Amino acid sequence: MKRKIALLFCSLLILDLYGQESFKPDAIKPQVWAMPTTDNIRLDGKLLEPSWTKAQPATSFTQVEPYQEHKANDSTEVKLLYDDRYIYIAAFCRDTLGTKSLKAPDLMRDFNWRAHDTFAIVFDGFCDHRNGMSFVTNPYGAQKDYLSFDDTYFDSDWNGLWQVRTSRSDSGWVAEFAIPWKTLRYAKKDVREMGINFLRLRRQSNEISVWSKYPRSYGFSRMEYAGVLKGIQPPAPGTNLQVNPYVLFSRHDKDGSNTVSYKMGGEAKWAINPNTVADFTFNTDFAQADADLQVNNITRFSVFFPEKRQFFLENASLFGPGISPNDDLSGGNMTIQPFFSRRIGLDALGNPIPIDAGARMVYRSSKRSIGAMLVRQHAYDTLPASQFTTVRYTENIGKQNRLGMLVTGKSSPGHVNGVTALDGFFRFGQAHSFSVMAMHSATTAKPGGLAAYGRYFYTTNKFKFWLSESIVTKDFNPEAGFVSRQDVVATAPGFFWYYRGQRLPYRKFIRSFEPGVASEFYHSITRGELIERSVKITPAWLTLQTGGYIGFSVTPSYQNLSTPFEPLGVYIPAGQFSYTRYALSMGSNPSRKVSYIFLYESGSYFNGRLNLTDLQLNLSPLPNIALRLRYNDNYFQEVGDQFTTQHVRLYTAQLRLALNPRLQLVGLFQKNTQTNTNAYNVRLSWEYKPLSYVYLIYNSRTSTTDPSVREVTQIAKVSFLKQF
């Protein structure tokens, strides 16, 4: 064992010497000055006010992609103004091809920025090189924003109060931001500077450039690489309260039984000081949340659906330590989350359960973070009323390390469940990081259970290596969390090599060659034997200059079933199975008017064969029109003890019609031959003022085999946000 450990560290040392194209932050950081203004800034993307001509621009953007530290091919200029209410940022993104070059496949909020021409800003209000607050737009004024910590934990669906308008011309495009000081978080008084950085993606050439450079193996939110914003004098924090009431009318028709109801409630956010924010919700409603996309699951793992409800999204990264395949590949398919907010207000099938009220308070500083959440779930059907409690504490150690504790609880009459967790994150130098967590669950009248994981990462521009080890006992039971499987010890090592050298052929079309291996091994604790093994070998993966890709993989697998397994209704008996699957993955330039993502898997599957086809076609003739079609087909051939041969198909169609980023009609249709259902979701949303909405929603679910089984919901909802 000692020889293996020594060999591992020697190998990592060699990788460090060979793969190090990364660099440390500059000792002297670039600076940009903001100028005070008394002009009445009209937000229109035209920059006609005299103050804009006087402000000194930040220029000299350098590439992150494709050629690190090279000068950007198309220049970008950024100017900043401020008054006692707002900080204004104007970005002129020059483009030699003018409007013909601009790419924007849709106008949705929180768009996929890598498919668009993009300009982004990130603020480090506390100058602690750890916390980031990002604001992003495209040439048509769509908005994206998120919070980040250590460029590792992200609140991607946080929605801040800010505005942006854009204009387009033959020389490029302009984005004009107005961000209220009350939206930003900064020290209590005497603030004269902040950390800041700017990013531009020119999608025509797929070139990413930034004002303050950082290695491409890191992210835009790696704040120790940010520059410095100087010359500001933001107002001292005062009253900062947002109230967001709503009124809702609904009609529900299920199997011929009609009910009509109305509902009132709302939320409030109180920034007690720059470090502390309290959120309150009453008679909570999430009717406007995006519908879940259905998944036909052929694995032994439970499906981990992401959270989409706004109250639970803000500061989700603070309350959500754990591992999940949604985050990265390092944990394999294993998911361990001591707290998972979808356990609140949703049943096992994703149907809503009323929430009476909730409260959350979060304190963040350069030294520590503290959070607490309390939510009361209403009694529903056969379920009693329940209280969910979560308390979180983290202490920052040094520049990039952290220790934390999390306590969760769920209680109802005669029943209490809780989890206590200790965790840590450590960054050793620029390339090495390690995260660890240990958890204990306790339930009324049941034995307690344990879970833990450790995860090591090595990342440079040329190599990515990881090793993850996790354990979950059979009695570990996080009722306010999520665990994909119990009674296992899981090991998941893997690596990727990123090659961009001179020997790479067709460099005009190919950006990088990225072969790798991702493996998973699962041993049963009680049985003391290997129960599952998969080794995904990717000998060829090409990332194209356009952002497209093509790759091929081979995955030898082993399954040792102690109980039967029934994927998509196909009964597979207990026993040992070895099989190999082959996969071809392809994706085109996602910014084009017509793009696609294609996956085809074939090969043996347990005692038979399975062919999987997954095709997604995206049509976007204009930014205002976006159609996404998806076809998923699982073709079983002589699988299981009945030697079943059958197709299980899932059809999905999503249409988005947008007059502008603030007025959109979205439709979703899903047809599943496994459940014999057709599901429709249609939503008209109008943001009539920032973060104030009118929603008209239509939901329908019908059986394809029994027309009498039908459920229809019609909803009208109006919300209003007022900031004091």
Report the C-alpha radius of gyration, rounded. Answer: 26 Å
Shape: globular
The total strand number stands at 42
Mean pLDDT: 89
CATH architecture group name of the domain at 24-230: Sandwich
As a percent range, the share of strand residues is over 45%
Distance N to C terminus: 62 Å
Biggest sheet descriptor: 24 strands, antiparallel, barrel
Count of alpha/pi helices: 4
> Per CATH, what is the topology of the domain at 24-230?
Immunoglobulin-like
Poorly predicted runs are 1-20
By CATH reckoning, the class of the domain at 24-230 would read Mainly Beta
Structural class based on helices, strands and sheet pairing:
mainly beta
Helix content: under 10%
Topology summary:
Elements: H1 2-19, E1 31-33, E2 35-36, H2 50-54, E3 62-65, E4 76-82, E5 86-94, E6 118-124, E7 131-137, E8 143-149, E9 153-155, E10 163-169, E11 172-180, E12 193-202, E13 207-210, E14 227-230, E15 241-254, E16 257-273, E17 276-284, H3 310-313, H4 316-319, E18 336-337, E19 355-364, E20 368-377, E21 386-397, E22 401-412, E23 415-428, E24 432-443, E25 446-459, E26 463-472, E27 482-483, E28 488-497, E29 510-513, E30 516-524, E31 530-544, E32 549-561, E33 575-587, E34 594-605, E35 608-622, E36 625-639, E37 644-660, E38 663-672, E39 677-689, E40 692-703, E41 710-719, E42 722-723
Parallel strand pairs: 1-14, 2-4
Antiparallel strand pairs: 3-13, 4-5, 5-11, 6-7, 6-12, 7-8, 8-9, 10-11, 12-13, 12-14, 15-16, 15-41, 15-42, 16-17, 17-19, 18-27, 19-20, 20-21, 21-22, 22-23, 23-24, 24-25, 25-26, 26-28, 28-30, 29-31, 30-31, 31-32, 32-33, 33-34, 34-35, 35-36, 36-37, 37-38, 38-39, 39-40, 40-41
